[in-house]
Amino acid sequence: MSQGSDKLPTMLKMRFIDLFAGIGGFRLAFERHGFSCVFSSEWDAFAARSYQANFAEMPAGDIRGIAAKDLPDFDLLLAGFPCQPFSIAGVSKKRALGRPDGFLDRTQGTLFFEIARILKERRPRAFVLENVKNLYGHDGGRTFSLIETSLKSLGYSLKTQIVSASPYLPQKRERLFIVGFLSPVDLDGFAFPPPPATRPAIQSILEKRVDDRYTLSDHLWQYLQDYRERHRERGHGFGYGLVDLKGQTRTLSARYYKDGSEILIPVPGQNPRRLTPRECARLMGFPDSFQIVVSDTQAYRQFGNSVAVPVVEAIAGEIKKVFGGQTVGFLKPQKTGKRKTAIHSRRKIA
């Protein structure tokens, strides 16, 4: 075929869509390996603002209002779908309030089926899904079994693993990852990455100068100590988490904005303090170049809800190996124009 032939296929980067994108942890990790994002969706207005500030793109809104046929061409689907209906804390809270959890939570629990809908219609070559580890055992394992059966029925071979972030970041954080490849991709070519040999300590991500407003007030510090003592007397382990600076923290959660109690930094001669938003960003593996453009409250929520970037980056590297160690190949050209305009014209943030 001559170089000037109009039938020469276009060289394109392997393309992914970023669903339930949050502030872009998945995107950051995959772009570091040369993959190209062609579409993103996020329904939270504050998270979308952070996403736009860092990627110069406003995500589309609620994925439930977007038809699969209107999405641009893509090779990979990435999604950290909402975890609250399946997390231990989320399930406990919802049941205590008499509210449905898991798939019975019609607001968030059924969003997995939006992923299945898009996979069924568009059939990308692979996908990566992330959620809390409790998804695996939720409802006696029936929830995960339904997810697994649904994905396999669409023609995907799966590999799943609970991956700890602690070898990558100074945080004890475990998340369930589900990686799927559409036949005839060789699933044996993929393996979850081995963890780094050394574990970083929390002191490595601390800022040198921290504003006094992050120090706990006398009233809050006394309340947390009293709360912990009450539960200790009852034989419970509930209470604040004062960090050993040479060790690692508990899991950073979206509730951190409330009092910061699960991760407190000791300060000589003073009450302990909470992490700053920048320290939370570092704790999740975001670079210091990542712009924080929202209030502290929203920033704590966003980083607590995010993926651990270095973990996803390591998984992205293994996916890259499956496709020959490249993210560029002879692929069908994207269909832009009217289709892309239609998507961008309705990017309203819920």
Can you offer a commentary on this structure?
The chain has helices spanning 25-31, 45-55, 88-96, 112-122, 142-153, 218-233, 256-259, 277-283, 296-305, 309-322, 338-345; strands spanning 10-13, 15-19, 36-40, 76-79, 126-132, 156-164, 174-182, 264-265, 273-274, 328-331. The protein has 350 residues and is of the alpha/beta class. Strands 3-2-4-5-7-6 form a 6-stranded mixed sheet, with helices on both faces. A two-stranded antiparallel sheet has the order 1-10. Strand 2, helix 1 (25-31) and strand 3 form a beta-alpha-beta unit. Helix 1 packs across helix 10. It is globular and about 60 Å long.
Provide tags for this entry:
350 residues; Rossmann fold; 6-stranded mixed sheet; disordered N terminus; disordered C terminus
Give a topology summary.
Layout: E1 10-13, E2 15-19, H1 25-31, E3 36-40, H2 45-55, E4 76-79, H3 88-96, H4 112-122, E5 126-132, H5 142-153, E6 156-164, E7 174-182, H6 218-233, H7 256-259, E8 264-265, E9 273-274, H8 277-283, H9 296-305, H10 309-322, E10 328-331, H11 338-345
Parallel strand pairs: 2-3, 2-4, 4-5
Antiparallel strand pairs: 1-10, 5-7, 6-7, 8-9
Give a quick summary of the entry.
The chain is an alpha/beta fold and 350 residues long.
- The CATH superfamily of the largest domain appears as Vaccinia Virus protein VP39
Tally of helical runs: 11
Mean pLDDT comes to 84
Strand content: 5-15%
C-alpha geometry: globular
SS content category: alpha/beta
Quickly give the CATH architecture of the largest domain.
3-Layer(aba) Sandwich
Largest beta-sheet details: 6 strands, mixed
* Helix proportion: 25-40%
Which spans of ≥5 residues are poorly predicted at pLDDT below 50? Answer: 1-10, 85-109, 330-350
As for the CATH topology of the largest domain, it is: Rossmann fold
